[in-house]
């Protein structure tokens, strides 16, 4: 049960959300469905109106007492990487001042007077998780039976995404999705909406109201997809992207990602537009992100080879349009060769490893060891709805199992690092999220070490800290989550 202070905060936030929801919903529902690529000026007005909403405020100085765990640096794959990488402060203090982390202190350094105290002793306090690849509209088709990637897109995903042309559907979907992230312990994400401009706009507006770090951008597709999900021409797609970038990129905690779905659904002209946008906005707020899919499934790789015969490899299709850079996120990257891995490392691009999706769709087993040896940054992602859970604990457990099938072993440290500070580092956001360093935003999550008798027994029997954290990671899920905080504000409580 939430404590009284949590209940007040949660109630206030709920009332605030409801007002914002009504303002935007009222405008959005008055409009009919919007075709792919069409602009939606009325929604932009509503989204701007929501910016004036007063934020609900947590105490200006908050001291939380719990078992603090975060990372100072990459722990590698060692079981005992030592305090230079892992920081564990049992019964420690996390000090939050005006939305930011002021300090992480050991148990014996009481913060003194002047702090509102929150006693969470016996609970695990972690930085908020970062999901580097997830599809908001695919909550509607998560856990759909019986297909591999290309058939799955045709059978389930494309029909579901067509509904997001309707602003009311897009808006309700964005709200539901972000609430679901927070209820899973995820406080920041790189998200695919649909091809509809309104679907990106609603995600930006909903994330902004919550104060969340969110990276998204309208999906680009101009071939090999249904009419209702296809950009009509390059000029129209460019207009939509530019309008969204100008409105949202670098605003509060939002970043724009140029988002070609994957090579087969974009023409060379559209991929050239992606490269142009990245170049044109290179100087704006650190530059745009690029997110797409890469070498997920063998049939897909064969299809790309037939569509782009001039390219050396799947990755080379993107490289030829200058889409490889330090802000590029490539989901999956299962079927790569050493030259591809070298190119990714050289560019500083990251692979978002999506084990739950890879197992569910039978796509293949990602070689983290090979990527690591080539010095490619790897982060962890749910890829819902190909993945079957938004909860990072489930993703990490699946990552362990997928790697075990290749004879590799994923430690709890490497998994947790890659879903927190490692992801922040790969996204160029280490100054803002992913750890308890002073000055970063106070995005954090609280967890029960155990939910139910099986988890409790395993915790009781753990002989050292890695055993304890590993068992928590493998056996836990969103039922272990106590609360999610964004910028110090409690946004979810179980
Ligand atoms: Zn995906």
Please give a quick description of this structure.
This protein is globular. It is built from 17 helices and 16 strands.
Number of separate domains: 2
Please give the share of residues in helix.
Answer: 25-40%
Cα distance spanning the termini:
7 Å
**Topology-level CATH name of the largest domain:** TIM Barrel
Strand content: 15-25%
Name of the CATH class of the largest domain = Alpha Beta
Radius of gyration: 22 Å
Form type: globular
CATH-assigned homologous superfamily of the largest domain: Metal-dependent hydrolases
User: Low-confidence segments, ≥5 residues, pLDDT <50?
Assistant: 1-55
Q: Please state the oligomeric state of the protein chains shown.
A: single chain
User: What small-molecule ligands were found?
Assistant: zinc ion
Arithmetic mean pLDDT = 90
At CATH level 2, the architecture of the largest domain is Alpha-Beta Barrel
Biggest sheet: strands, sense, closure? 9 strands, parallel
Task: Count the E strands.
Answer: 16
Count of runs of 4 or more consecutive helical residues: 17
Structural class: alpha/beta
Give a verbal description of the structure.
This protein is of the alpha/beta class and about 500 residues long. The protein has two domains: about 120 residues, Urease, subunit C, domain 1 (Roll); about 300 residues, TIM Barrel. The chain has 17 helices and 16 strands. The strands form two sheets. Strands 5, 6, 7, 8, 9, 10, 11, 12 and 13 form a nine-stranded parallel β-sheet that branches. The longest helix is centred in the first third of the chain and has 26 residues. The structure holds zinc ion. The site of zinc ion has 6 residues, from strand 5.
């Amino acid at each position: 049960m939430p404590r009284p202070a949590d209940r007040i905060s949660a109630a206030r936030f709920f009332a605030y959300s409801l007002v914002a929801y009504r303002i935007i919903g009222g405008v959005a529902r008055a409009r009919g469905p919007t075709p792919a690529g069409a602009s939606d000026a009325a929604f932009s007005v509503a989204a701007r109106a929501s910016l004036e909403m007063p934020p609900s405020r947590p105490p200006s100085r908050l001291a939380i007492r719990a078992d603090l765990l975060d990372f100072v640096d990459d722990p590698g794959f060692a079981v005992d990487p030592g305090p230079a990488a892992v920081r564990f402060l049992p019964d420690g203090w996390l000090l939050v001042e005006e939305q930011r982390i002021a300090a992480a202190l050991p148990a014996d350094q009481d913060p003194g007077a002047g702090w509102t105290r929150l006693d969470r002793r016996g609970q695990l306090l972690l930085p908020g998780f970062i999901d580097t690849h997830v599809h908001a509209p695919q909550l509607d088709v998560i856990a759909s039976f019986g297909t591999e990637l290309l058939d799955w897109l045709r059978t389930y995903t494309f029909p579901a995404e067509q509904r997001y042309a309707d602003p009311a559907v897009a808006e309700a979907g964005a709200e539901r999705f972000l609430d679901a992230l927070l209820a899973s312990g995820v406080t920041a994400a790189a998200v695919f909406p649909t091809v509809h401009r309104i679907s990106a706009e609603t995600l930006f507006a909903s994330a902004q109201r919550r104060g969340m770090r969110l990276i998204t951008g309208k999906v680009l597709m101009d071939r090999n997809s249904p009419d209702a999900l296809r950009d009509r021409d390059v000029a129209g797609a460019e207009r939509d992207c530019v309008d969204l970038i100008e409105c949202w990129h670098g605003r509060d905690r939002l970043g724009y990602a140029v988002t070609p779905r994957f090579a087969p659904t974009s023409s060379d002209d559209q991929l050239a537009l992606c490269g142009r946008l990245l170049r044109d906005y290179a100087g704006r707020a650190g530059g745009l992100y690029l997110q797409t899919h890469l070498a997920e499934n063998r049939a897909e790789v064969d299809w790309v080879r037939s569509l782009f015969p001039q390219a050396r490899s799947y990755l080379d299709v993107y490289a030829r349009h200058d889409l490889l850079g330090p802000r590029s996120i490539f989901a999956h990257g299962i079927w790569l060769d050493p030259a591809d891995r070298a190119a990714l490392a050289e560019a500083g691009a990251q692979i978002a490893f999506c084990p739950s999706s890879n197992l569910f769709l039978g796509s293949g087993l990602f070689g983290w060891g090979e990527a690591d040896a080539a010095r490619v940054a790897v982060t962890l992602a749910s890829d819902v709805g190909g993945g079957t859970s938004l909860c990072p604990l489930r993703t990490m457990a699946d990552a362990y199992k997928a790697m075990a099938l290749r004879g590799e072993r994923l430690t709890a440290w490497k998994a947790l690092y890659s879903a927190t500070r490692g992801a922040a580092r790969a996204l160029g956001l280490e100054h803002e999220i992913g750890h308890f360093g002073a000055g970063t935003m106070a995005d954090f999550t609280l967890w029960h070490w155990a939910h139910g008798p099986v988890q409790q027994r395993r915790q009781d029997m753990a002989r050292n800290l890695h055993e304890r954290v590993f068992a928590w990671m493998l056996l836990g899920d969103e039922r272990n989550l106590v609360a999610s905080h964004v910028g110090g504000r409690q946004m979810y409580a179980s």
